[in-house]
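To: structure subgroup
Subject: Chain for Friday's discussion

All,

I'm putting the inputs and outputs inline so they're searchable in the archive.
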Amino acid sequence: MCQSSQTVHSSNTYCVLIESIGRGTPASAAAVAKGLGRPASEVVRCLYTAPAVLVEKVDRNVAEQLNELLESIGYEARVVEMGGFVQETPELYDISLYLQEASKLTTVANKLSKFIGLSESDAVQALLNPPGVVLGSVSRATVAALEALLDGDADLLACPQNKTLYDVFVGELPEVIRRRLLDDLKSRGIPLLGESGLVASSIEISRLEDIWQRYKANAGLKVVNQAFLRFDIQLDSSVSDLTDAQIDCFRRNTDIPENLLAQVVQAAPVTIIESLPKTSLDRVLDDFYKTDIPVSAHLITFQSLGLKVINAQDLSYVNEVLDAFSIGETLQEIPATLPCAFPEIQARVIRRSLESAGATVELVSEL
């Protein structure tokens, strides 16, 4: 049996301890499970919550053979003598991925599909569905293994499940369901911030579990780990004669080249930081405020963006790209604005694909 927390007291027998999924895959876990006569789900759970005991109370020869097999597959494992050791229950994490570079979508989807056993198309959907939560209830070792596999191709955020708060967002819902949902939140003593958009903030998940179970079939309700929210930082007004402290603040927090800084500052209002995670938001805002730089934060996680095609080298090629994304729109002339909006990350991916097809494309915040 997979055990993530135990003290073992018997002697002259051994166990095999999975320390990390390493380079292994859920597909290979199914083969291991078959060989052990165990449910595949049980073995997969061992892998993702490692370090965990996979097999116990076997003789040394059996343990070493199994350990050798596991390491040949790519898992990190070791043989441990039964008795005298304590395996602590690991802290469990949820993982979110964000594509800073839209061109990395195919690469990241391919890596993710192998790591969690999804089809590549399902992995794409997971990445494009904000806030990009791809794994839950996994150990720090699994976080590290996925981080190593991605090798910087996506921005990975891992949040401990027992150390986070949640926000409640309400989008389009039938009015009767909206009213019932808001009443249920109020009856549980949850303060409401409004009736749509962000309606409740910084709530313990235990207070929301029954709400989620009751309304989760409604796409207009989102209960989101605060740590996975992302924001753009906007410079609200220009700053004349930047001080050394202000220049240092821009250098610490943005990628704006110093030789272009004065020009960017005069272009305000302008976005100076994109897709900043919530975990860094307070620190960055405080830094700007302390140096008297007028900035504001704008939530982009559930932002919808339109796309305007300014020009294109080959209109038919542009339409092929649109068809590949199942947009259902054929452009007859350019410039043209697509008649629908997309989730922020999906809009950026489509724009990148259109640019690769030789088009010049702008993101449009309002259609």
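Points worth raising on Friday:
The chain has 13 helices and 18 strands.
The CA atoms of residues 312 and 359 lie 4 Å apart.

D.
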